[in-house]
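User: Hey, quick favor. My workstation is busy. Could you predict this chain's structure for me?
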Amino acid sequence: MRSPAIKPSWPVSHHQTPPSIGKFPLGILAEYQRDPLKLYMRAMLEYRDLVRMRFGPSYSYVVFHPDYVQHILVDNRKNFQRNKLRNGLFKVVTGENLFTSDGDFWLRQRRLLQPAFHRQRIFGFGQLITNCAAQMLAAWDQYPSGARLDVDQEMMRVTLRTVGLALFSTDLTANSSEIGHVITKSSAYFTYRLTHLLAPPLWVPTPRNREFKRLQASVGHRVPELIATRKRLIAEQGDAENAGRPVDMIDLLLNTRYEDTGEAMDDEQMGREIRIFIGAGHETTSNTLSWTLYLLSQHPEVEAKLQAEVDQVLAQRTPTMEDISQLPYMRKVLEESMRLYPAAWAISRQSINEDQLGPYYLPADASVILPIYAVHHHSDFWENPEQFDPERFAPERAAQQHRFAYFPFGGGPRQCIGNTFAMTEAHLILAMIVQRYKLRLQPGIKIEPMPLITLRIKGGLPMTLERR
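Assistant: No problem, here it is.
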């Protein structure tokens, strides 16, 4: 493997054009539509560091070298903004929020929202998370041993319940099938628009556009109603502390104020932020848990070691926040799962001014793609990258890895604001599952990744439930 660089030093006088793939007029669009992961892996294996891909009339610069990732996300981050095409499509789905904004607006929102995700705030959600997991496991206890379980749907449901209670003290799973359906269809709509550059804009009443609008409208009223209901409750009873209610995320957001004006976030903007928290907050963690449970079922030696750690630390009791630091092997398992199957499988940026990536010239206004999945499988930076090996995240081995060979939550100032909540939730739910159950993949099932907005499991994850 290559030795990791601490800080790249590149000759800015070189204006070498990266190698290119894809011929005019469509380039590699057809291959991208069929399987973007396969495309990025093929390009990474052939070109290693950087390649220019033609997508229809324009090129995107696809980055595989961790030095270049670091340059874009950290070292020269001010020269890169959200990718215009992809971000425009995200705004169709979610509106202007922390995830889709740039510049002063993004910085203002980040500063306002960051305290709500402070570690001490997350610490207070520990019992809520374990209560949700206990409710799920109580339902599993009613099934006979050997019963079929659609594990991906179970993980979606438990994480949706958790995020609903954390945000609103409201269980959203009464409408989980509706909300889950909308999220899945919205992801598919985004992917379709991204890969079909000539697709009619949303205002054109095509069947696909009409369906998307109908699905958005079917759940679009829920967040404003929840905000309005909470405001009425506060007007009648006072804030959560005075009323003796648990403080949730919406209480925190209602009480935050912008530094420059002292004003609160308006209801419309709060709704946009909360909708992205619901979507990203439950889908990414549910995917991580699903992939982890699949990997454990395929590697019984790792599963046995994890069971032993959980049994020794917890001794059959419900885990607490304090226990997470006492489960180091579990963290390695989760990190290795996110290396192989990162929920956010790619991120994108747009250069503002011309730049330099190693010996390669990057023009101004260039579309840049960071395929996290491919970088996580890069054999120049990972030994046996296709192997599931949690011990590669042992401290002594992890210290030898390039900092940006692994970035499941992004990096730099725009690193995912909810990463601590996601890891906390994953630890506690996985610990409770491992305590009581082993899950085995149903015979004849072929598991393949499905890259929508997040990296799902194609066709779901049907497993057999076995009590320990």
